[in-house]
Design a protein that fits this description.
Shape: globular
Strand order of the largest sheet: 1-2-3
Transmembrane segments: 21-42, 74-91, 98-122, 134-152, 164-184, 215-238, 250-273, 285-302, 335-354
Number of strands: 3
Structural class: mainly alpha
Distance between the termini: 71 Å
Number of domains: 1
Radius of gyration: 23 Å
Keywords: Membrane, Transmembrane, Transmembrane helix
Order of helices and strands: HHEHHHHHEEHHHHHHH
Number of helices: 14
């Protein structure tokens, strides 16, 4: 009996697959909630790397601060990297990996509650002890994420783990590292003196007065909070849960959003400084986000087949000498993209050790 083309899409198996995809992506979106909310100004007073009270002035800045306390820094990186961990476990595709993601969410939630009630730390703006308060964004988002993961783990289609592809793992890991560059190195440092006074090392400027100034100010804060890391994690989650066509489209959209940050830097440089400013355009662009966008796009559009070292050398020689008939279509393009990404990564590392701003 011949099966209709659309019957597979409407089968119970396809419905279960769609439900599992929605639950998996919803879980990653939920664990990304604290980062997304603080990026847009919600719940900043409940985390230790922001001031406990908002001010109408731009000095001292509201955050995010690079905390000197180890528990506070561990919580910051736990909240930032948890979406990456959950997305990576969902890429694995097994029930055990999904349950491991539930355990990871529970561990970070428990640690966040421990910090909030027992080790609130000092306020980065006043130097006083923070008031004990429950972190409601953390509780709400992580509870939803744990519930979605538990429902996804009950799917009967989660049987065997997917094979590990080191090509994709390297690309996704590189994208996460590039996206987390500002969160690791560009947050505002805080120093407390012996007299409990506060010294903030911050390159302040005039208060934003236009839409472009506000957008530039927000994009810098979002970069330091870690919104680009969340975008990479969401792209990986969609790539793992959705069909290939939708996963590639979503990954391309995430890479395009990451590209908006360096493009905004170029627009801001031309608008504000031009030829009258001492800093060059190269020093004013966030190249790490350009690299993150390239790696994300390469991860979602990367080849499925493995390329051996001998084939890589042969392709490189063919690119230097000229095209050859025995080159598999697409491999030369992938190698060229890899060369561009590697050159960008080297430039990012070298420029990070050059005093610029």
């Amino acid at each position: 009996m011949t099966q209709e083309p659309g019957s597979e899409a409407g089968s119970p198996t396809a419905a279960v697959l769609r439900l599992g995809a929605v639950l998996g992506f919803g879980a990653v979106l939920a664990v990304s909630g604290p980062v997304i909310l603080t990026t847009f100004g919600v719940g900043r007073q409940s985390v230790g790397w922001f001031c406990s009270a908002t001010t109408s002035t731009f000095y001292p800045p509201e955050g995010p601060y690079a905390l000197e306390s180890v528990p506070g820094e561990l919580l910051f990186w736990g909240l930032l990297l948890l979406p990456v961990v959950v997305a990576g476990l969902l890429l694995r595709g097994s029930r055990r990996a999904t349950l491991t993601a539930v355990a990871a969410v529970g561990a970070v939630l428990a640690f966040g509650l421990f910090i909030a009630f027992l080790l609130p730390g000092l306020d980065p703006c006043t130097g006083q002890e923070r008031v004990t308060a429950p972190p409601w964004p953390l509780i709400a988002c992580y509870s939803v994420a744990a519930g979605a993961l538990l429902l996804a783990a009950r799917s009967p289609l989660l049987r065997r783990p997917l094979p590990l592809r080191w090509h994709g793992i390297i690309l996704w890991a590189g994208a996460v590292g590039a996206a987390a560059w500002a969160a690791a190195f560009h947050r505002i440092p805080v120093t407390f003196t012996a007299g409990r006074s506060l010294t903030v090392v911050y390159a302040g400027a005039e208060a934003p007065e236009s839409f472009w100034n506000d957008l530039a100010w927000w994009s810098g804060t979002a970069d330091m909070i870690g919104l680009p890391v969340v975008l990479v994690a969401l792209a990986a989650a969609i790539r793992a849960a959705a069909p290939a066509r939708w996963g590639r489209s979503a990954g391309t959209a995430a890479a395009a959003v990451l590209l908006l940050f360096p493009l905004l830097d170029v627009v801001g440089y031309v608008r504000w400084y031009g030829d009258d400013f001492q800093a060059s355009l190269i020093d004013s662009v966030r190249w790490h986000l350009l690299l993150a966008a390239l790696l994300t796009a390469s991860a979602v559009w990367g080849p499925r087949q493995r390329i051996s070292r001998a084939e890589t050398v042969r392709l490189a020689r063919n690119l230097i000498r000229g095209p050859s008939k025995d080159v598999i279509p697409g491999q030369a393009k992938n190698l060229a993209v890899a060369v561009v990404i590697a050159a960008t990564a080297v430039w990012l590392v070298v420029s990070s050790f050059t005093p610029t701003r």
